[in-house]
Amino acid sequence: MSDGHWKGLLHSAVYAPQRWAGQPEILRRDLELMRKAGLNTVTLAAGAWPWLEPREGEYAFDWLDNALTTLEENQIKVILCAQGQVCPAWMSRHYPGAVRTDEDGTRPVPGASGGLCPSHTARRKKVREMDEQLARRYGTHPAVLAWLVTGMDLPCYCPSCQKAYRSWLRKKYETLGALNEAGGTAYSDWEEVNAARPDGGNLCAAMDWDDFCAYQRAELLHLEGEAIRKGCPQARIITDLLPAQGGEEADLTLTEIRPDWRAGEDPSSEWKQAVRAAFAYDRTRCAGRPFVVRQKSGTKCLRPGLLMLSQIQAVACGADGVEHAVWRQLPGRLDGGAVVSRNGSAETRLFRETAEAGQVLLKLPFVGGMGTRASVAFLYDGHTPAGLTALAAAHRCGDPQKVILDHYAALLENYVDVDVLDPSADWSGYKVVAAPLLAVFRPDMPKRMEEYIQRGGHFLLTFGSGLTDENGTAVPGWPPIGLNNVFGVGVEDCDPLLAGQTNSFTYDDQTYPAVFCCDILRRTGARMLAAYEKDFYRGQPAVTKRPLGFGCAWYLGCHSDAKFLRKLYADILKEAGIPHLADIPYTQDLMIRRRTDGKRTCTFFMNFSSRVQVTAGHRLDAYGCAMDTAWAQE
To answer: Is 198 left (phi over 0), alpha (psi -120 to 50) or beta?
Structure first.
C-alpha cells in the first residue's frame, strides 16, 4: 500500500485489549511481543460493542483510549472497527426484532457475528449512533490508519426482509408478469413471493435473492461509512465486501481466508489449498483497489514453514499486507491459531515463525503498491455460486466449483499470471480468456466474445456455459446461446457422469479421461481436436477449435484430469504467444507469481510440497520460497 497514508506492507493482527483491560502487565507484554514479531498495525475493537456500550446509552471508552495511546507510543498503527456486526446482549432484549431470522423461522443466539437483521430500523439507528460516537472520538487520532466495516450479514428471512425483498423485485421487474416470465413462476399476487430457498432449484430466484442480499449489504456499508465520515470526513474505509457483493463505496478490501492447510488427500502436498487461496487473492486484486489478507487458522496445526509461505503467497498474489486473525488466545476459547498463547510466551514455534515472517515483510516495503501484468483473463461471475448450485442439482455429478479451480490451477501450472475478472469487466486487452462453466450470459456477452476473437484473442468456453440470460432464465436455442456460429458447435444434450462413471478421448496422441459430464455437440464449423471414445455418442467431438478472424474459439465439452488441462492450456498459451514467468519445465507443487511497478519486477517461487525442489537457480526447502528482483533496462 503506497498512497500517502502508508508505505510498504502491513503486518497486522486482530487484537482484543478489552479482554485484559484490568491486567496492564498483559498489555505491556503484548506490546513487547508485537515489536518482536514485526507488527506495524493492529485491528482494534472487532466485535467490541458489548464493551463499548455495556448498557444502552452508557459508553465505556477508557480501555480503547488507553490502547490507542499506548500503540501510538510504540509506533503501531490501528485499523479501528465499526460496530455493525456484533451487538451487545441488551440489543436483543430491548429490540428482539433486531436479531435476524433463519430460513426455518428461528433466531440464532444473540451476539453471533452476522446475527442481526439488515432491515430492522432500531438496529440501523443504534449502529449509526455507535459508529458516530467512535468517529467523533477517534476520527483524528494519529494512530488510526483506517476504519473496518465488515458487511457479511447472513441472510435474514424475517417478515421485514421479505417485504423489502418484494419491494426490490417490484423495482427490478416492474410487473408481476415480468417476474413470472423470467422465473417460470405463476404468482397471482406480490404477497405470494418469498425469499428463495438455497436448494430450491430455481436459478432466477436464487440469483435475485443473492442480488437483493448484496443490495442490503451495500446499504449497510453506506450507512456505516456515512456515520464514520460524519465524524472523520477523510476516513479510509476497509471492507470485506467486493464491489460485486455490495462493497463499492470502500477504499480497500479485507480478504478473510481459511486455507485449511493439511486437510488435503495428499499429506506431502498443499497445492490444492494454495490454488484455492490464490484464486481468492486474484479475484480480490482484480476488484481494482488495494487489499489486505486476514489469514484464519485451519483445522490442523501448520507445518514448519507454512506460515511464512502462506504470507508470502498472499503478497506474491497482490496483497499489500497480511493480518493474523487472532493475536492472543482469548479467555474461554480452546482453539489454537493465536500468535500468542495464553501464557504469553515467545518461545513457541508459531510465534518464532510469525516473527521470522515479520522480518521478511519488513524487508519488502517496495513490493507494496506493485501490480500484476497478466496476459490471461479468467472469468468468474458473481452469480457463479448460485449458478453452480443449480448446475450441480441438475447434473448430480460432482462439485462444479472444483471444475473451475482445476482450470485455474492448470493456468498456474503453466507459470503465467492470471487476472480473475467479473464477465462485465473489460477483458478485451488480454491475449487469452478462459471462462469455464460460465452459465449466465449477460445480453452483450456473445457480441463481445465474437469481437474479441475476431481481433485476435483466444477464448475458451466449456460445458455448462451460455445456459441462461442475466436473470437466470433459460433461453431457447443450443448452448452456448448466441455463439453457435462463433464457436462452431451447439450443445444438443448433456450426459451427466455419475460417481465412478467416465468416458475418454484422445488428444495429441494421448488418452485422457472425460468426467463430470459430456456435452453432446453438433458441429457447425469447428474443427474436432478430440472425440469421445465410449457410449452412444462415441466419435462425437469432445474438444473443438474454430479459427475466427485473427483469433480462435476453443470449446471443451467435458471435464478431465490435471494433465490434460495443463496440456490444453499450454497449447492455447503457445498459440497466443504468451511467455512463461520462468523458462523451466513443469514442476509439481511449484507456484510462480510476479509483481511489478514498471521499473522493478519481483518474481516469487513457492514450493507447496514437503519435497526439496531445485528450480530456476533456487533451492526451495519443504514449504520454502525465494524471490528474484530485476530492474527494467533504460
So the answer is: alpha
Distance (Å, rounded) from C-alpha 274 to C-alpha 80? Answer: 30
Edge to edge, the sheet with strand 376-379 lists 418-421, 376-379, 432-435, 458-462, 551-556, 541-548, 527-531
Give residue 312's identity as a one-letter amino acid code.
I
Say yes or no to pLDDT of 579 above 60.
yes
Residue 196 grid cell: 428463495
**CA-based R_g, the chain, Å:** 26
Task: Report the C-alpha gap between 252 and 255 in whole angstroms.
Answer: 10
- Give the helix ranges, DSSP H, for 415-505: 445-454, 484-487
CA distances from 174 to 161, 177, 179, 272, 634 (A): 19, 9, 8, 45, 59
- Cβ distance 474 to 468 under 8 Å? yes
Asked whether 498 and 396 are in contact (CB, 8 A), the reply is yes
* Global pTM value: 0.93
Question: Phi/psi of residue 593, each to 5°?
Answer: -135, 160
Alpha carbon distance 392, 437 (integer Å): 11
Reported as a single tens digit per residue, the pLDDT across 128-158 is 999 999 999 999 999 999 999 987 667 889 9
